[in-house]
Every structure is written in structure tokens, then in C-alpha cells.
Amino acid sequence: MENIELINKLNYSGELDFEEFKHLLSTYDQKDFEYAKELAAKITKKIFGNKIYIRGLIEISSYCKNDCYYCGLRRSNLKAVRYRLNKDEILLSCKEGYKLGFRTFVLQGGEDLYYQDELMVDIIKSIRQLYPDCAITLSLGEKSKETYKKYYDAGANRYLLRHETYNEDHYYMLHPHSMSFKKRIECLHNLKEIGFQTGCGFMVGSYHQTIDHLVNDLLFIKELKPEMVGVGPYLVHHDTPFKDLKNGKLNQTLFILSIIRIMTKDVLLPATTALATLDSNGRIEGIKHGCNVVMPNLSPQEVREKYLLYDNKAIIGQEASEGLKELIETLRYNGYEVVYQRGDYCKFDYKG
Ligand code: SAM
Ligand code: SF4
């Protein structure tokens, strides 16, 4: 089958088998790339109109007990500058964000044992109480099902936990054996069972990633049915074991984003900071390829450059909450409108 026929099949049936995906991802050309982009944009427009949801990203801690080989926050990186926000600082960021119009707060961080269940529950409850009209998204890594349930009962609504790769051997090329592929996947199933709007995802261009791995990632997304998908390019951090690798590729990331939109239809799909870091047009290109969420940085200014997953992180201008006006303008110029709503996942019965 021609690639355009495969893209059409994915659009109508919502699925391709392993070999079909493999053919598409390994042989697509510029024409297929443009075709997928247009189709993804059409689907996004039909479901979300020209609306782009904004989330305020609060990076609560740069401490991490894990040692993922690709990440600047890994515990073995002794040069990483560590900080953590206390409850008051987190609430202050929410207050600033609320004033700016954000109605979703994303609390993200390394796996920092400082935030024991009692403290995290207290923080979540306080945000819920102060901002009842806001959604609370967490991205704090792997926890027990009991802990996830406590977070949920305290008022958290969404949880982002990228699966990173759906291939066990590849998982251990990216992570030490002290981490567990099975546990990662189990966490995602637990989050879904509890009722979280759940996000999985992966980096494009990670170490030793093959087309087969990417196909398995797409098939896993199909199977898990997440409400959100986080996909961005892998970017080098100079103080990690992967310091000599190359960044993920812009066009491959954009193509995969459009394929995810065509496959899933209504998923919430952010144009990530990594994409904006890789290329100055990355964010807007992501949106043109089917993304419908942006997450400006709402962390206190002084910690933003300490939360470094990769080199040259984009933290100023439109990446920052202070640059929201500029971001709104850029999006408007390109025909999109930022909306100040929670922007929860809504099932959409898409008919081509
Ligand atoms: N610690 C939590 C976790 O790992 O799920 C949440 C924060 S972690 C920094 C969020 C995501 O950042 C990870 O899932 C990973 O995909 C991404 N990330 C880490 N290092 C990266 C790098 N060098 N390039 C691009 N993305 C990276
Ligand atoms: Fe820690 Fe997350 Fe970075 Fe892994 S990706 S080292 S878990 S912050």
C-alpha cells in the first residue's frame, strides 16, 4: 500500500498493524509528511476548533532518586543544581498563574522523597480548595497505586507519566536496572484504573531507538487509550552518559505527532518545551501538526534554570508565563486562539 493510503487507513479505521506502521515510518517522504500534517490539522480543527489549551507548568523539584541516562536531573549528575519548592512557594506559583488566566496547574518534578504522601496530599488539597475551578495535573513519576489514589482523592485530576519506550530491552538502554519497565507500565494501568486522565509518551530520537521501537510505542498508545500523549524530541544534556549523542530530529517528531493525532483523534497533545528548544518554530510547527496544548513555565523565575533536563532549555519569551501575551499573539497570527478553560479530555465521536 502507498503511504498516503496507509495514512488514510489510519484515519478511517484508527489503526495500522505493525508492518504497516513500520512501512509508513521508514519510507515516508515530504509529500506524505505534508499530507499527514494537513490531515492532522483538519482533525484537530474539527474536534477543538482553533482553540489551544494552556497549562501552567510548575517545576517543583530538581531532586531525583532515579538515574535515567538521558536526563540532567539524574541523581548521578553531581553538577545539577538542586532545589525544591515548599508548599507556600507552590501555592504562590498557582496564585500568579491564576491571575494570568491559567486554569490547569501541572506540578512536575524529579522523584523527590521529600514529598511524602502526607505533604503531597496537603498541597493538592490546598490547591483544590483555593482554586476549585482549576484542574491539577501531576507529573511526579512512579508511585504505588495507594499513593496515586491518595493524590486522586485529594483532588488531582490528571497524571503524566511517559512510558519512554514500549520495548523492555530498549527501556534498559535508557534506564538502569534499578528501575523497572514492568513497573512503569503497571503505573500507567493503575492511573487509568483510578480514574486519572492519564498521559503516556516518549522521546523521539532516544538512544538506540529504532523504527520498530517507535511502532511499538504507537501500538501501545492505541492499546492504553490515554487521554493525553507527551511526545517530544530527545535533547542532549552535557552531564549525562548520553552527552555525545545527537538531538532527536524535528521533522520526525512532527511527523509522529501528526500520526498520533490521526490515530487517536481526540487526545490532548502538547507542543512541548523540548520541541520549542530544538527549533525556534518548534512550538507553532507542533500545533500545525496536530498539537492542541501548550505549557508555559510558571515556576518561580529563580529556579527555572536549575530544572535542566537537557541543554539550552527554552525558558524565556513565549515559553514563560510572563510571555503569555506574546504567545497569544503568535498563535493568533497563525489562526489559533488561546482559551482560558480547564481543557479536560472530552471523548469526541469523530466521523471523517
Ligand atoms: N520525573 C518524572 C518522570 O520521569 O516521569 C517527571 C519529570 S521528567 C523530567 C519528564 C519527562 O522529561 C520524562 O518523561 C522524559 O521523557 C523527559 N526528559 C527527560 N530528559 C530529557 C531529555 N534529555 N530530552 C528530552 N526529554 C527529556
Ligand atoms: Fe528523574 Fe524523571 Fe529525570 Fe528520570 S526523567 S532522572 S525520573 S526527573
From TrEMBL:
InterPro entries: Aldolase_TIM, Elp3/MiaA/NifB-like_rSAM, FeFe-hyd_HydE_rSAM, HydE/PylB-like, rSAM, rSAM_sf. Binds 1 [4Fe-4S] cluster. The cluster is coordinated with 3 cysteines and an exchangeable S-adenosyl-L-methionine. SMART domains: Elp3. Its cofactor is [4Fe-4S] cluster. Keywords: 4Fe-4S, Iron, Iron-sulfur, Metal-binding, S-adenosyl-L-methionine. SUPFAM superfamilies: Radical SAM enzymes. (3R)-3-methyl-D-ornithine binds at S139, L235. One of its GO terms (molecular function) is metal ion binding. S-adenosyl-L-methionine binds at E164, R184. Gene3D superfamilies: Aldolase class I. The keyword Metal-binding applies. This is Biotin synthase. The lineage of its organism: Bacteria, Bacillati, Bacillota, Erysipelotrichia, Erysipelotrichales.
